[in-house]
Amino acid sequence: MPIRERHVPQLPHLPRPLFARNESLTSAAGTRRHSHPWVQLSYAIRGVLHVHTAAGSFVAPPQRAVWIPADLEHEVFSSPHTEMRSLYLSCESTGSGPQECRVIEIDALTRELIRRFCELPVEYDEQGPDGRLAQVLLDQLAVARGVGLSLPLPSDTRLRRLCRQLQETPDDQRTLVQWSLDLGASEKTLRRLFLKETGLTFRAWRQRLRLLGSLEALEQGRRVTEVALACGYDSTSAFIAAFRQHFGVTPGDFFQP
User: HTH araC/xylS-type domain spans which residues (predicted)?
Assistant: First the structure.
């Protein structure tokens, strides 16, 4: 699927400590790798966002968002028919916020605060009701719960090659023993490096890749059986069991508000 390039606004500075950007994206879109001297919250009320950094990938379906620290190089990709509500936050306003890239939960209150803030003028009155609303939103974001929707990437070049291949073809069923023959390293070495550099076993990493990769198709309404097979699962029941084990709910319940 072709991906349209999204424009990254060139702001010399933020006009206020909190700045909102609304976008309606009918087709799949993405930015070039970039950074900026403020925190970014990539959030979509519809669609699925993927944020890529050197350390890994972060996935945000509705009711979740990606917190991107200042000066961190990243790319943001969105699925078709995405409604984005990005926030830019000055570093001075986020002293107690997360210092690393992560996916956070957007609860009902925070969702409504974002919706209302995105309706305000850019240069809202910081001393009036609008400024107080912005401060409540900042407070809510600072204490938002992190969720496990990230996929760490190893730094070893051999493992990077393996990971790139699996990201392109998640239904690849090769074992680590089979990969060792292709990569010129023993299965024991690859297993040790995978755990050391990602904190996950090869099997757990591949399962997380498949489950995170399924979210966009599920959000777009594709049948669970179709998604399961595309992700490399032999049966729908195996996919649902793995999904429930990782996310705590079934695929049908995951996108409920």
Answer: 160-257
